[in-house]
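From the shared-data thread, chain only:
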Amino acid sequence: MGATAKQIFVNLPVKDLNATMEFFAKVGFEFNPQFTDQNAACMIIGENSYAMLLVEAFFKTFTKKDIIDTTTGTEVIVAVSVESKEQVDELVSKALAAGGKPFNDPVSHGDFMYTWSFQDLDGHLWEVLYMNESAVNQE
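Structure, as tokens:
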């Protein structure tokens, strides 16, 4: 039997938790108050998918490695799937309007996939994508 996760929690260090929560609320995400305090916020990405936004000092209690400088390096790209090309544009547009920075321009892979990316306030990369699985073998 293969490994199957019940839930996923992506842990991301943040400099200013309140500003980060305000940013992602403007993008349209909600938070689970049960797992949110002055050190961390549990952002609900989707069903069984969460981002734990951890104040840097608290994040450092989980690792002996340095926190990456997101102005010069990338540790991870968080990719989230939505239900339409229009939702890709809407989510990224909200992120940019809330103070996020552009990352990659929109990319269309014909009928199969459409992506667009942004950087959050801490420089973490978020790729928003729509994938039409019925078009997989048609390209």
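The mean pLDDT is 94.
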